[in-house]
Design goal:
This protein has about 170 residues and is mainly alpha-helical. It has 2 domains: about 110 residues, Winged helix-like DNA-binding domain superfamily/Winged helix DNA-binding domain (Arc Repressor Mutant, subunit A, Orthogonal Bundle), CATH 1.10.10.10; about 45 residues. It contains 7 helices and 3 strands. The protein has a 3-stranded antiparallel beta sheet. Helix 2 crosses helix 3 and helix 3 crosses helix 4. InterPro entries: HTH_MarR-typ, MarR/SlyA-like, WH-like_DNA-bd_sf, WH_DNA-bd_sf. GO terms for molecular function: DNA-binding transcription factor activity. This is MarR family transcriptional regulator.
Amino acid sequence: MTERALDKTAACLLWQLFEIHSRLEDLNESWADLIGVTAPQWLILMAVSELEKGRGVSGDAIAKKLCVQSGFVTSQTKSLEKAGFLLRTPSAVDTRVVLMSMTEKALAAFDKLSKRRLSLNSTIVNGLDEKILADLNVALATVAKNVQQATQLLAIDVAFGLRERFVRPDD
């Protein structure tokens, strides 16, 4: 594949990923509305649900999963605690670390939505067999890692003021 063809194919992939991201944001907004939280709070609850394993999960682990700053997770989990969706307890190992776990209220809300979520998840992956999904997950993990690297490389350009290399000054 020529460099130009590869670039065109990569651009097509990136636009597909952008569209998927936008539509997933719409879904998350709707799920959040159903239980009376914001979309970012819904994502935090989803992350806690996936990561917790019955022993709580740190704000740093949630932030890493969602690719956000831990301070944002701290403020949002405090709001979720006030709303009765999360318990925040200091770690027995390190009291500086706060562990989050879902409350009965959150678990009940997730349980009420579970059949609909399962149905919509099936709709999302309709036509893809288990092998294709496994291969797609591996490929997307590679893309995610590469996007992270590209983000860091571009941040270096910005940090070193290399804008003039890419943008012509006005004549």
